[in-house]
Write a structure and sequence with these properties.
Subunit structure: Forms a complex with SecF. Part of the essential Sec protein translocation apparatus which comprises SecA, SecYEG and auxiliary proteins SecDF-YajC and YidC.
Membrane topology: Multi-pass membrane protein
Keywords: Cell membrane, Membrane, Protein transport, Translocation, Transmembrane, Transmembrane helix, Transport
Protein name: Protein translocase subunit SecD
Distance between the termini: 22 Å
Strand content: 25-35%
Number of strands: 22
Oligomer: single chain
Largest sheet: 5 strands, antiparallel
CATH architecture of the largest domain: Up-down Bundle
Number of domains: 4
Subcellular location: Cell membrane
Strand order of the largest sheet: 14-15-13-18-19
CATH topology of the largest domain: Multidrug efflux transporter AcrB transmembrane fold
Length: about 625
């Protein structure tokens, strides 16, 4: 029988639309202002902190709607921003500097809906408000760090080949290796030039030295690597610290753009970004005299550092391993129920770590946290001078020869182990960064953008509705039902996709798909009219109308989808947002305009003896 839809197809359409409506539903509940409290390094928010916050808010008469404790963070919701700001000021003054107190916006999704994965769409900076930073990578420090690494590698390689040398040091922009005789110079030049083909080596037999300098290609690679690695690490740090849907991307040769939608507190956003630092592993100088070092007599090969509690340790300057090689880290407990940090290295790091620890079993090793903070001073080239701050996180004993996976014990409490794992897992910056531009988009402006975008969508929606009803009558009602279902599915799919963020260009993509969805129905309906004018029966006209128009609709949508995929592949930021919503809209409109409307038409008019259609 012509134009008969089986039961399974009807149920499929109902199921898809129902699922889309379910996951689009969280978007109608809105957001509430909130204050987020989390522990800083060495401290963890817990049930006691929760009770303290409750009692302080109650004592000061600050009303809150809900308070929850999850994943080491305490989130307190408020009905208005006035109470939110009062609570932030109160908690900052009473909790002290051991906790981070940040303003945020949190969805009002009901628990039953959240339990099935229902979350509202993530809004971009232009819609939700937030903060944006332009950060500059210190390329000089990246090159200096690479140079330090090469100095250590030269020493290791020459010792491994039994080539004797006096000193390896940086002289100007080159590395100079001094030898005892000309024969060793020749041996070193022959060995190192084959091993490091991206370096330029120059012998000086009179001074018994071998000079190594980087080529322009090598310098370019270091700068590019520093920029890309910093982008990855900053993104990891922001994600680890709980900022929803950040945008981190490069700008030019040394800048990084960071957008944090929904973050209202600029100071706290800076604090999150300043947490990016470097991790180094160094041996404790057990043979050194700590008392003499405290009195100013520090050996030239050692360095006096302190932990966060002010306890001193004498460490060797030579770096065994940096955080660059860490690919994963997690906290757990050892066989004695003591907190530990489990670390996984990449292959080069595992090999380097194995060689560094095989002769130091049973000796203490320190994990050093290094942070670069910009100062008000400028160097001779006009660049910002950075202050290097070093702090010992933990001191542990090497239990055996270590490889790609190992553990650190002696990190104190479980909270300290957890935070150390977070720091290691997120990665270490290749070079320090500084904020060169800061921009804040207020939530009021974001709300206005949402309202204007919503009005544009609803305006286009209403005009299309009226046109379809007027021009296609009963079939226009079918098209409008499909159009409504299409809009619901777009919102539901965007809400479901992890990482998808709706921006103003994304809203433009939704408006465009509204027109495209109707275009498919126009092609089908016009073909049905044409078949009726040629004298076909109603059932034949409906059948031929859908079948004949299908190939045209498919071709048009596939070409548009290809363009959207290319936009996503080569575009950045807002362009990607537009491409995502356009792609989703094309797929959902194909489903609603072809499968959805045909199911409705077949259910209402299919298989019946009709003399005319309301089309």
């Amino acid at each position: 029988m012509l134009n008969h839809s089986p039961l399974w197809k009807k149920l499929l359409v109902l199921f898809v639309v129902a699922i889309g409506a379910l996951y689009a539903l969280p978007n109608i509940y809105g957001e509430s202002p909130a204050v987020q409290v989390s522990g800083l390094r060495g401290v963890e928010a817990n049930a006691t902190t929760l009770d303290t916050i409750k009692s302080q808010l109650t004592k000061e008469g600050i009303d809150y709607s809900k308070i929850t404790f999850e994943n080491g963070q305490i989130l307190t919701k408020f009905t208005d921003t006035e109470n939110q700001l009062k609570a932030r000021d109160l908690l900052e003054s009473n909790l002290g500097d051991k906790y981070s107190v940040a303003l945020n916006l949190t969805p009002n999704t009901p628990d039953w809906l959240a339990s099935v994965g229902g979350v509202p769409m993530k809004l971009g900076l232009d819609l939700s408000g937030g903060v944006s930073f332009t950060m500059e990578v210190n390329m000089d420090e990246a090159i200096a760090k690479a140079t330090d690494g090469m100095i250590g590698d030269f020493r290791t390689d020459l010792r491994g080949e039994n080539i004797r040398y006096r000193t390896v040091k940086e002289v100007g922009s080159a590395i100079e290796i001094q030898f005892r005789n000309a024969e060793d110079v020749d041996l070193a030049e022959s060995f190192l030039s084959k091993r490091y083909r991206d370096l330029l080596f120059e012998e000086n037999s009179d001074k018994m030295t071998l000079s190594a300098s980087m080529t322009e290609q090598k310098l370019k690679e270091i700068r590019e690597y520093a920029l890309q690695q910093n982008i990855t690490i900053i993104r990891n740090r922001v994600n680890e610290l709980g900022v929803a849907e950040p945008l981190v991307q490069r700008q030019g040769q040394k800048n990084i753009i960071i957008e944090l939608p929904g973050v209202q507190d600029t100071a706290k956003a800076k604090e999150i970004l300043s947490a990016t630092a470097t991790i180094e592993f160094r041996m404790v100088d057990s043979d050194g005299d700590l008392s003499a070092a405290l009195n100013g007599r520090v050996p030239s090969s050692s360095q006096l550092l302190y932990d966060r509690d002010g306890r001193p340790s004498l460490l060797k300057k030579r770096v065994m391993l940096t955080g660059d090689h860490i690919v994963d880290a997690g906290s757990s407990f050892d066989e004695y129920s003591r907190p530990q940090v489990n670390i996984t290295l990449d292959s080069p790091g595992g090999s380097k770590w194995s060689n560094a620890t095989k002769n130091n079993i049973g000796k203490p090793m320190a994990t050093v946290f290094i942070e670069f903070k910009p100062t008000d001073r400028l160097d001779a080239q006009g660049n910002i001078v950075y202050e290097k701050i070093e702090e010992i996180i933990s001191v542990a004993t090497i239990q055996g020869r270590l490889g790609k996976t190992f553990r650190i014990t002696g990190s104190g409490s479980q909270a300290e182990a957890h935070n150390l794992a977070l720091l290691l897992r997120a990665g270490a910056l290749i070079a320090p960064i500084r904020i060169v531009e800061e921009r804040t988009v207020g939530p009021t402006l974001g709300a206005e953008n949402v309202q204007l975008g919503f009005q544009a969508i609803m305006g286009g929606f209403a005009l299309v509705f009226i046109f379809m009803l007027f021009y296609y009558r009963a079939f226009g009602v079918v098209a409008n039902l499909a159009l409504t279902a299409n809009l619901v599915l777009i919102v539901g799919v965007i809400s479901l996709i992890p990482g998808a963020t709706l921006t103003l260009p994304g809203m433009a993509g939704i408006v465009l798909t509204v027109g495209m969805a109707v275009d498919a129905n126009v092609l089908i309906f016009e073909r049905i009219r044409e078949e009726l004018r040629e004298g076909k029966s109603v059932q034949q006209a409906i059948h031929q109308g859908y079948d004949a128009a299908f190939s045209t609709i498919l071709d048009a949508n596939i070409t548009t989808l290809i363009a959207a995929i290319i936009l996503y592949a080569v575009g950045t930021g807002p362009i990607k947002g537009f491409a995502i919503t356009l792609s989703i809209g094309i797929i959902t409109s194909m489903f609603t305009a072809i499968i959805g409307t045909r199911t409705i038409v077949n259910s209402v008019w299919g298989g019946k003896r009709l003399d005319k259609l309301s089309i």
